[in-house]
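Tokens in:
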């Protein structure tokens, strides 16, 4: 007998250190690139959490629209 409780919420993601190994960019531009990437990663994590929450609250509606 299995206990099916539905999907788990996405857990906190490990904070990764950005590394630029070889680049034809100034240090300022490299730092801006790192910051933009970190912001995009945070936005993607928030979007994943919102999607999970919507699917949890409205399971019948979200599964009905997935096939279209």
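Residues out:
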């Amino acid at each position: 007998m299995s206990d099916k409780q539905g999907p788990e919420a996405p857990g906190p993601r490990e904070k990764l250190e950005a590394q630029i190994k070889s680049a034809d960019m100034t240090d300022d531009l490299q730092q801006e690139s790192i910051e933009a990437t970190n912001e995009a990663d945070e936005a993607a994590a928030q979007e994943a959490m919102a999607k999970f929450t919507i699917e949890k609250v409205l399971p019948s509606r979200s599964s009905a629209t997935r096939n279209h």
